[in-house]
Fold these 4 entries.
Entry 1:
Amino acid sequence: MPLRWPAEWRDPSILDSIRGTPVNALYAGSEPLPGPVAERAQALGLPVFDQDRVPVDVKIVDGEWPGLRLSRSSGDAVDAGPTGAPWIDSNTWRIQLERTLAPNKRVWVRSKIPTRVILAHEIPVAIADAAIAGGQWIITVPADFKSWAKLSETLRFFAANPGWPAMKTKAVLGVLSSFTGHEQAMASEVLNLTARMHQPYQILLPGEPVPALRALIYADLKPTPELRSKLETYVRGGGLLVVIDNTWAVDEGIGAKPDAGLQTHPRFTLHKLGLGRVAIPRKAVVDAFQFASDAQTLMSHRWDLVTLWNAAAYGSHLTALPRGGVLLHLVNYTGESGANQVTARVRGEYQRAVLRQPGHAPESLPLQTAGRAAEVYLPEFASYAGLELS
Amino acid sequence: MFHCSRRQLLFAAPAMVPFLARRAKAAPTPVSRVAVTACTSYGAALVPALDGLFDSLNIGRLVRGKTVAIKINMTGSPKARVGYVPLEDTVYSHPRVIGAVAYLLSRAGARRIRVLEGAFDCSDPLEEFMLQAGWEPNDILNAAPNVEMENTNIAGVARKYHRFQTAGGGHIFPAFDLNHSFADCDVFVSLAKMKEHATAGITLSMKNCFGSTPISIYGGSAGVDEPNENPRGGRGMFHDGDRQPSRSAPGENEPATNRDPGYRVPRIVADIVASRPIDLAIIDGVRSMAGGEGSWISGVSPVRPGILVAGLNPVSTDAVGMALMGFDPMADRGTPPFETSDNTLRLAEELGVGTRDLSRIEVAGPRIDQLRFDFAGPRKVRRARLQADAHA
């Protein structure tokens, strides 16, 4: 667990604050550590990395400073996103993507340090934001940081659950793209915004088999003939394919035909093919949020695995537990326990709900049945909670 | 609930003549009938309770062989609850009430039933909006034959809007362009929730129709010249008049009038009701919330008034609804619940929509004081506390 060494820290005795925490490496960034600090780190057995030297099994990713985006124009006001909900900067989607592109690498996220004052409660949030997707945030603290106990508590919590990063995302929606070239920006934005809507997804690459998901977003423009054939097979089997290319050639390519009975969507034309459907935008897609939202509606919210109430400032990630059941990761981006009373509804039949959070013993929670889902009323938590349903 | 069969009336009539004659001199003739009943749950008691109300109103005569449109109330985000309490128990019309109304109207002869709402901030199908709220739309769609839904925030399948002229010229808007569904029906039902409202004092069957207006024309992202068929955002222009609707629709009579939301919203609600008349007003007060219309209002809390109300005139129905909430429907600005707004009922009355005078309304069912659920008392306490907090 790497700690970025602030340039202002010249005193090697600060390393004593770190002793006993799960921090086990230092990250120097662009400037080398001051000599006495480097010597003390070596004496303590703490490896030092920098932007040119990282462990061979680690990929460093430049990411956002996670949290609620503060308004530039109005001091401590919070900006609203396209949903009217607070705008959240998160690296979760980025880590998922990097882990898909390089499955044998661990992902470290290096956030650009904001120029404003960093508050202590932002640090556990940033750690959790990366951890829920199986990544490691390069711990970045302000020069006057004192909350080592809280930091340590958060790090210990995730260190005590080493199996979590290996858990598979549980999803009914897939996003397929090469995530390269001109298409990378839109495909990445679709991942980001789909996550914001608490819709878990599998990231798929063109060379891989297409799994039997309920819906698939193809976020690139032109598939190869091989990929087109795979997509056709997927649709014929009953899947919904949502393409981003409004010029998608239905007749000469994938072979789907317009269906007059399905032409009620204001922004998409629907084509039947075998047991499934292809949804093609009527106009060029310019609004990634609307596109991501429409894809879910076209699939139908009936199949949503996760529904959260009063969670506009929260992030989520759903994973499958190895022995059955699911783990719903939740990040509260406000970083503070508040009056928010969040309800989580998770599709599936479960008998037991346990909440895990840093600094607290696991807590069994009552569970209500809501149709084909389980509903749990969550107690307040400051930065992270994991809801285990089995 | 009072029940008086025709036979009982015939037998009693001779003895009642002197009494009725005195009554006729003492009180003006009722011009409207509103039915009320107690109903404490959305379970098995719901359908019989609604059935009793509809019997009192002879609903079959209204809906037999007709297409009925039901404007429900799903104001605000489907993801924002009051605490842990489901939206249907606080903010929204309850889906079981919607289903029960569809069933009973169909049983009374309605040929086709269309459930309508300008669902918050989107043009998604209404079924999808309900799913996001945690509802099962099939429970409503299967409540009766030929039930359909439409999100009226956009033009929808008709691809064009229908213009409704405001009777009397309107306080603010001379006409509204609405989704075709409000024209393609014979009977229009407003199915509201019994709530207070932060801007308009109360929200009952008339205020419910605020959400009939398409955000493609009257929303924050409405097109300047033409409707925006991919709209988002709320109806802020109705509140503060910061802009005019799309030019394709009629603008305000006098764009320079008062921009105060407490002045505008009640008048615009009265205009909407005077442009698309409500044929049947229903108020779901079984479970609701006190202190405002949604979770975004501070200090709100769930309540269980245990009341259902229905009437053929929305002004009269809302007047009875207000009285059941402990408010005086004749109250005006400065008096609860209109501390900072004008009285929508008075403004609708001025447009000739109906009467709010309880002495001219026949209430069928238990007396109002037998059913009254006190919203007014806690409102005074809450407002005093908020004012004290503001001064502290």
Entry 2:
Amino acid sequence: MKNYLPFLLITAVLWLVSCNSDKKDEADAFITELEGATEAPAISEETINDILMQIPSPLEISMLMRESGAEYDRTILSDPDNVSKFNTTFKRAINLGIYGTDLMYTNIFSQNQEGLSYIKAVKELADDLNIGQFFDLRLVGRLATNNNNLDSLMLITTQNFNSINRYLQETKRANLSILFLVGGWMEAVHINCQMSIGNPEITALAERIGEQKMILENIMLLMSFYAENDSKSGISELYEDMKQLKVAYANIQITYTYAEPTTEIIDGILMIKDNSKSTVHITPENVIEIDSAINIIRNKLTS
Amino acid sequence: MKFLKYILIVTILFFAKEESEAQCIPSDHVKTCIPKLVGGFSFLKSYEINGRDGRLEKVEYSYPFAKGTQYMVNICSADGGNQGLVVTLYDASRKQLATSVMNGQQLSAIVFNCQSTGIYYITYTFDNSTSYCGGSALGFKR
């Protein structure tokens, strides 16, 4: 026993050293969580992150608008000069998402000058939320002033937003991540609705709005976990407001028929042809109803 | 003398453990993968693949794919190529749609021409991998 004593002591010391760094991380996370003013929900971090991953990038929806032939309309975007009005963490996080979508929309339609206003607004809100390090204002600004850099600009912007999102989740601030993603998603649906109302002949726009029903269901599920524990940060109020959006979506039907896919290899890449079909049943009246519900929520968030 | 031996062995074991856990840096492989989204695909998401030295059998992510859109998922492993990594795509009801191993060939990417909107699952597994580490990028085009 005497012979093993030094061994046990050294092992214990090394184990303590090893644990100490973990404990420091845990302590930091705990403090951050307290600052978030929202109690942790009764679901695992893994489940939260799984649902967050299922919120689509606004980039995809914006791209559809351009390719469908709809024209750029600046009046439907949130005013970038309103940044100073957002003086709570809740408003900053949700408007960061809203401005992020507006920025992508201006990027896709090559509206460089207006894009710069949104870049500035995004950077300001990100700084206020202590995540400004993920947004290289100089680089994005430089790319935004030249139309030939559109691909690079989209890539950098998407990477920045992905990094912000990952960082928030890693630092146990998933509540902010939810707000950021929900804000971005809601703005994308809002822009899509506005463009669909102005261009009812482009059925792809209305279909894309209808498809968001499944995303909304996931968002509502996620927010319900937070709303149960939250009375301060604003999530519970937003959750209540979003119930009206859910009502507006209640009439949308999505049907799905499965068929085996077919595959072939071309140049070392597996090409999969989806033979399943999904159909969205949505009318122009449904779009107007969804748009109205979104506007009520959006006006509260952006004022 | 015995005491010194203990110090040496425990120190080696301690640092060997730290080293093996620090070896996998998926973000590096993600950086390699993003520029490999060629053919007009726009970058959407990046996925880190860390099999924790074989302790994890699979790493899974999910994303809503939209009708009328093509999605490319590529994989980059620690060898600089795609060896040892397999990507498999499942639909919302967990039906397997395709996998990147075809006829014994390990492919570097899959392209899914989506005709049915829904949540899809992108699963990464390991096949004779030594690093259990890699990255992946998801791109889209209409």
Entry 3:
Amino acid sequence: MEKIILPDIPDLNKLDVYIANGGFQAAKKALQMEPSEVIDIVKKSSLRGRGGAGFFTGLKWSFMPKVKTKPHYLCVNGDESEPGSFKDRQIFEKNPHQLIEGIIIAAHAIQAQTVYIYIRGEYYRWIQMLQAALDENYERGHLGEKMKQTFNTDFYCDVYIHRGAGAYICGEESALMNSIEGKRGYPRVKPPFPAQNGLWGNPTTINNVETITNVPKIIANGWEWFASIGAPKHPGTLLFGVSGHVNKPGVYELPTGTLLTDIIYNYAGGVPGNKKIKCVIPGGSSMPPLRGDQLEGIKMDADSLREAGSAIGTGGIMVMDEDTNLLDVLVRISHFYHHESCGQCTPCREGTGWMEKILRRIQSGQGTSKDLDLLVDVASNIEGRTVCALGDAAAWPVKFMITRFRDEFEKYVKKEVVIPVKNKIHSMKYTTYSVENIKLPESTKP
Amino acid sequence: MAFQFTEENLKRIEKARQKYPTSLAAVMDACYIGQEQNGFISDEVVEEIARVLEIPKTDVLGVVTFYTMFHTKKMGKYHIQVCTNVSCMLRGGYEIFDAVKEKLKIDNMEVTSDGKFSLEEVECMGACGGAPMIAVNSDYYENMTKEKVLEILDSLQ
């Protein structure tokens, strides 16, 4: 299979090698087209966003105003903060020039003259690599005003890197825009959507790094070629990052629709010690987990995973073997979302904290089975009631982990409550425990 | 004496400012530069950033306290960041964290008395394929074991 994003060409991160392998031919071709033609090709290719939501990229571009009255912006999202996701880093390291070529084509399609690449602050070394690649392309006249001569066109764009500073929420597109504007990373209420009202109130498009890196190959080889790879409704390849209990963790570029079991056993080398799999999170920690005994036949594309009761997310596959304590995993996930909640919406700010507290109570051996119901209830009350999807991302793992692994979680909780103190029986009406389950100390019995 | 940016850093901030249509947008770059020069972001650094960018102090402080990579107290020369998020946890992230704690005799977000090391339990750093991992300042070290981590700590002078 031909690889689109990370081809097996040595030293592809060097500009000369990239050009020798057909680099910047797609940009030349696209810059001679009308922006609407470029958008049309990407639309027909059915390229979908690789950042989690899986929205159609061409359609997203087409939302930008056709007549330019204000500056247009393109933001490239390389925040990559989803636990279990580590794919964009490979692109910065191994194929930065294809990303830059994709940016030129995308910027032309939406007529954006300023492009910001948002990269998480921890990726300082990769920021340096990409900045070096950008500088090289400026020198060669692939970016900036010199583009006009190089590509014989009227269009030019400038590309800047904006370094994040360790906030998960800034991977959310509107929080990302606030962060670029120099504000705290609070997500914005939509509508208005970024295509109307984005950076500094101007039309803006936000695309994932991997999404943009696909674009040059689509222009060079045609949309028919791209649409024929992988699953028809979600074509192309994906960078699957496999981590956790596998023999060969790493990033594997495979066509969409590849079997999940194929990725785990054939590419990632199976589970150490040939243990059984208890649980798999297929798309980064926000996505609903799948039971290990129900992985047969699940294909890795947006629609198949939705049918299987999860989502493709960022394609970060976390594998947990049969000896994993799922309670510990869920406590860790809940702690993460509690820590990363920006604090803007009450259900998320408070709910994530309560979920963590209840889970820690269970962890300390003080939980009852009512706590499991309470957790599902709290999660359901966060879901869909917040400005951005972090609320959902915090709720899903809790809700689905407990409902899908109820048998496992029941092991960690008690059914009965012992009230050791006399004369406290009247206070029971304020508790959530049902009276039948209360075991009174012998001495208080009538 | 109050904190002042060096000539060179003023130029770097000016360059960052050129990237954006507003000077507020350069605040994160300025915070990084301030943190680099001063070691951490004190009230005086906040004031200086606000003065240089001509923005209210509250805007600077809001950003400094929101993002976890800006430190409002002095951290060690080597800031050891250990990831304990799920992928690292499954492969022994907590054992690494405990080993570092024991070796340095400090807890999360504390600094050793000689000011050489500080420790932070961090969220996913995007190196799940090389789990468990640690980062020392900006450098990633992947596929860690207890022994390797202790070796790295010994090698830092």
Entry 4:
Amino acid sequence: MTPPTIPAGLPRPEIVTEQMPKRGAAWLAIASSGDHKDVGRMYLATALAFGAFALVELLMMRVQLSIPDSTLMRPEVFDRLLSAYGVTALVLFAIPLALALMTYVVPLQIGARAVALPRLNALSYWLYLAGAVTIYLGFLWHPSEAGTTALAPLSDTTYSETFGVDFWAAGLLLVVLGFVFWAINMFTTIRNHRAPGMVGRRMPIFAWAAATVSGLLLFIGPVMIAALTMLLIDRNFDGVFFDALEGGAPSLYEHLSWIFFTGGYVAVVIAGFGIISEIFATFSRQPQFGHRTLAGSLIAFAVLGVLAWMQNMYSAPIGIGWLYFAMLMAVAAVIPIGLIYFNWIATLSGGRRESRLPMTFALGAAVVALVGLAGEWAQSVIPVGWQVANTGVAWGDTHLTLIGAGVLGGFAGLYYWFPKITGRLMGDSLGRASFAALIAGSFVMVLPIQLAGLEGMPVDVYKFFGDTGMSAYNLIGSLGALIFAAGLALTLVNAAASYNNGAETGPDPWSASTLEWFAASPPPVHNFDLIADVRSAEPLNDIRDAVRTGTTTWTPPPVGAPAPTDDAVDGSAGDEPAPVAVGVAAESEETATEASSSGSGSEPAAETESEHETGEGGASEDEPTEERAESPAEVEAAEEPTENAEAAAEAERTEAEGPGREDPASEDDSEDDDGESPVA
Amino acid sequence: MPGPRTRPLLLAAALALTAGFALPGTAAAFQLAPDSPVSPNADDAAISWWVMFVLATAIAAALIIGLLRAVRGGDQLGPRTRGTRSIQGRVGAGLALLALAVFIFGIVVTESSRQVEATGPDGLQSAQRDVELPEGSQPLQIKVSGQQWLWRYEYPDGTFSYYEMVVPVDTAVVLELRSTDVHHRWWVPALGGQFDAVPGQTNQTWFQADEVGTYDGRSTEFSGPATAAMRARVRVVEASEYEAWLEQQATDIEAAQANVAETNAETAEGDEATASAEPTEAPE
């Protein structure tokens, strides 16, 4: 597949496909796609679906625990919900939600046309889905009852005779394997596919978070795969890894599984922090204060967080020296977390107040996650941990952290990037109602249970006794769970409803400064017609400045215009079958058969920024050979049956795909004079 | 932060929260700390809890206030803020000092909590009934064994009991935790923290109850469907009462074993060994 060599001095040829291949059904096209945006969308939809699963399980458990000595459920039923809930909430929902956003956004942020290993990326999604389905297939037979982490030897055949744990372990193993593949691809992409000039100090914090999470998953994933493999060998092939009577070590599984679950928790927090950082910078119209510190703090927190896995095992028979090591790591986590919050505050101060929906969610996420993390930090002192581990206190802190970073932070990212993914905004009033319910619900749910924990309420039990004085706490906690569930459901509904009916928006609804907003919304399959030459940590601001000062030959499409003058350069007009120009350097493995809508169409009415120019569609005027066409949408509707649906549905949009330009040098011109020195 | 429309909702949430705290306050004593401690190691836990609770709350509150103040902002864009290396270094160094202080504090309280104190004057002076020991030197050793879903206690003379442990007041009691099946976790909040009973390993903790009374505990490690029912109780009595109870318990066990043996002998001669195996192995 070596590209033909081009003699120097000659213009590079365009590859023109005369006949576009027939496409199958839309779902098949997405399912078989290696495009990171398709994979990201599938990750997103699946993660949100499992968020709903986790929510149902949480609600059922809270209903059971809303009254003392409850007999609504048999203990076995509660244990099945508990065993499913743990992995669903963290491993099937919170982590994949972060991975979904990263898969979709990070290649765009770093100015890549595709990911490095698209098939591996797609495989990671399908392994995740297959594993998740396997875990839930257990419910057809007999699901796991071995608890959230399936601690051996309880999960061994002696104490869990049915196949439930096998479904659970095999499914989780597939999911984790998928995560490892995802991490390999993401790390390679960030390492190798950055746009020219996108060096580390200019890379968005969210991309740094993605790199950190990749490294983290590459470490914790194999650890969990090892643990689950040993568990499956013990269960099915007479292994004795965790059988104390045969010389095995039950504590080995405890260590390995805690490395994974602690690392997964840390990954969710880091992803949430990455999202919050992007949103704070965007909506305060400030550069990231302390960019280098933020990136370094994310990495430091990943290292410290994983090394503190024994913070969950203070009560185990481990030498005290090891516990001190874990305590040191856990206590030291205050340094990166404190620095991150300090830099956020510095970024926000001096900023302009803009209470857009993503900002609201990001702020809520930062606050809720901080309350949870402060609680976790308090527990890192060993006697405190001895007293409150595995009680409602620890349960509450873990949930607050994951609700903050995972749910609120993940949703902040969803509200922020939804316009990029769909070209539409998510509903505002539904979003605000959802936010209020999530904030109120999470505290009303967690704080009473924490108080009950202080009086000795343990976690993971199917009932509590009426004589322990915890009835009121638990009832209020259950009511809080209902409010929380309503909030979470509202955002899910909002996303589903806005997918086709949200207010349409342009490529850059927030006037952000990172490169993903340079692409159309939704981006074409090759992401960028022009690869930007990155000169600062805020490349899109540089492009705006260059346009404003007229130092670029590249002109943006007119803002909000009905686009009669737009270039429709995909040549869809005319008598011939539509040729589609594809840039030589388009790295996408698919030929760019889609003629994705450009963002140059309707701008959001709400948008006020005047320098809203970053439409992809404004293809360069230095392509004189391209045919131009008026009213391409109509023509296309007649000529290209495979794209009828899209063209008709978005008739008012102009199909205007510029030919891919592989040469960043020409883009250089547009920004040369603007080479702002990097911030950090 | 939130727009004007969400403010009433947040207010309502805050009110609901306040009501939520007030309500159980009438039912049970409202408290922000773990169960009132009656043992030195539980005292250490309570102290470290309060220190960390105040510290963590103060840090979180300061940062949250900082965030909310910063975001309040104006309608005008301020000067672009830029980070400098030195301010990051100063903040980081401050946080590192805080972490170091907390770490040292943690080691101090942990060591204090692990230190088995000498039995007091009101305590049981000789732990083994037939062995004379120098005053206050030997803690009472009790073997605690977790099994699904019951705790079994074995006293130094071989007497045993289930669910309820009886110990003398003011006496250092060292627990040796074991498990016969899966992970369990021993926890009596008033008498110190949680400790695992792991199959194949021995774990250790201790307590010294200051006051006579009955203290409830529960297993906090998920161990199967009846985890919730796996409760424990420690009855702290005077030293003399403890010795009397121990003799009574030994007599009861002997009687029960004799009874079992007799019944077995009547029903089936050959079954005697297996039927009485469990009770007879416990002494010695």
